[in-house]
Amino acid sequence: MYRIAIEKLLKWKQSKRRKPLIIEGARQVGKTWLMQEFGRQAYADTVYINFDSNSRMAELFASDLDTDRLIMGLELYAGRKIDPNNTLLIFDEVQEVPKALASLKYFYENAPQYHIICAGSLLGIALHQGTSFPVGKVDFLKLYPLSFKEFLMATGKERFAELLDTQDFEMITSFKQTYIDALKHYYFVGGMPEAVQSFAENKDFNEVRDIQKRILVAYEQDFSKHAPNEIVPRLRMLWNSIPSQLAKENKKFIYGLVREGARAKDYETAIMWLCDCGLVHKISRVNAAGIPLRAYEDLKAFKLFVVDVGLLGCMVGLSQRTLLDVNDLFVEFKGALTEQYVCQQLKTAPDLDVYYYTNDRGSCEVDFVVYTGDLIIPVEVKAEVNLRAKSLKTYQEKFSPEVSVRTSMSDYKKEDWLVNLPLYAIDQIARL
Predict the structure, then answer these.
(1) What pLDDT is attached to residue 362?
(2) Are 141 and 35 contacting, i.e. CB atoms less than 8 angstroms apart?
(3) Phi, psi (rounded to 5 degrees) for 340
(4) Three state DSSP letters for 76-105
(5) How far, rounded to the nearest angstrom, does the alpha carbon of residue 137 sit from its chain's CA centroid?
(6) CB–CB of 285/301 below 8 Å?
(7) pLDDT averaged over consecutive 10-residue blocks of the chain (432 residues)?
(8) What is the mean pLDDT of the chain?
(9) Of 107, 187, 197, 364, which residue is 20 to 30 A from 377 by alpha carbon distance?
(10) Is 235 within 8 Å of 227 (Cβ atoms)?
(11) What gap in Å lies between CA 337 and CA 74, rounded to an integer?
(12) What value, to the nearest 5°, has the Cα angle with vertex 120 and ends 114 and 125?
């Protein structure tokens, strides 16, 4: 299975300013596989250490964090010499031994020759709870479920993925049915690696759904196991409310839909917890389109999306029969599913800041506004081929962006101020 993140890891390896690397991401997005695959491809040897329930490692890191001593301990544990130039050190579930996280500072300062990469399913929480290591001593990489392009590659359509990157939209349009069919599959399967692998091998939608159900159960178990007891019921209610939040016409998060009479202060911690473990994307509102967008962020208004479109479909019980009928998929829950998909692709794309826009009166809403580092691009999402873009036009008249994007099932088309970008090519937005 190809992951674009491998390319980023290779750049990290070659960097003269390399620091220990922390991979963040939700449970089961493929962090362990990625680290081991990277070790296999790029190093002569890999030393893999899982810190979960590992008393020997807890003891090793419990006393002083002298790097020579730690390397000797790791060599004894692995049963072989660690070559700083040719060995990749993998620390998995590293949040279970906080002092191992703290040691990264000393590896960076005193032994930068070692190549160290870390991950953990609840690392984000550990980091935000103040586990001690100084900012600036480590690099970070966020890992998400497979993007649509990675899904194409995983399901034997590598050439179609490559074609998207050429931006030859004339040829892309001539193969649009292949892309649309694959997109419908992706809406159902999503990008969780186990679900994608199962689908690629067996094409069995029931098996995919069973895998997704298991993943959702594991997430709920994490709530009970790792979250503070007082927020567990709120976490569950919040998590289970997201599909109904997204099904609304206006997808702004409403606390009252979680529980009648609920207020922000009751759920702020629960939202932060879900964000920290990578289970939700929090997309904040902006009320203007100046650079940087962050300066116009309204912290009180936001949308919540889940980590994966396939898991969202599973949460609402989206039937595989919808795949057999061309139109059904977009009838029930169509807007929510499509917006979830677009959000996921934008978050996966490198170096994009993602927000949404409404004016103060609420009469104009643009689904997403992205900042590429050069341009601010408003994005209107359409589930079908309905191409009315009233809000986008209002936004255009007010802020005059260089590029405005409407993404839908329609073909690529560039008009005056508007680009219609097919949903299956939304990852090309930063290259328009």
Answers:
(1) 78
(2) no
(3) -60, -45
(4) HHHCCCCCCCCEEEEEECHHHCHHHHHHHH
(5) 24
(6) yes
(7) 95 96 96 98 98 94 94 97 97 92 94 96 74 79 97 98 97 97 95 98 96 97 91 95 91 92 92 94 94 91 97 90 59 82 95 93 91 94 77 93 94 93 96 88
(8) 92
(9) 187
(10) yes
(11) 46
(12) 120
Counting every residue, how long is the chain? 432
Which of 104, 112, 203 minimizes the C-alpha distance to 156? 203
Nearest one of 111, 68, 110, 116 to 94, comparing CA atoms = 116
CA 340 to chain centre: 11
Q: What residues contact 295, with CB distance under 8 A and at least 6 apart?
A: none
- What is the edge-to-edge ordering of all strands in the sheet holding 87-92? 45-50, 87-92, 115-119, 21-24, 139-142
pTM: 0.94
For residues 45 and 68, give the distance between their C-alpha atoms in angstroms, rounded to a whole number: 19
CA nearest 209: which of 342, 120, 322? Answer: 322
Which token pair is 334?
């169509």
**Whole-angstrom distance, CA of residue 395 vs CA of residue 418:** 12
For the stretch 61-82, pLDDT in tens is 998 899 999 999 999 999 999 9
Please compute, for residue 102, the number of CA atoms within 13 A of its CA located in the half-sphere on the CB side.
14
SS3 content of the chain, % helix, strand, coil (to 5): 50, 15, 30
Spatial neighbors of 426 by CB under 8 A, at least 6 apart, are 148, 342, 345, 346, 407
In DSSP terms, which residues pair with 115 in a beta bridge? 88
Torsion of CA 262, 263, 265, 271, to 10 degrees: 70
> Rounded to an integer, what distance in angstroms lies between the CA atom of residue 133 and that of residue 142?
18
- CATH numbers and ranges of domains, the chain: 5-142 (3.40.50.300), 148-431 (no CATH)
Q: To the nearest 10°, the Cα dihedral for 237, 242, 244, 249?
A: 140
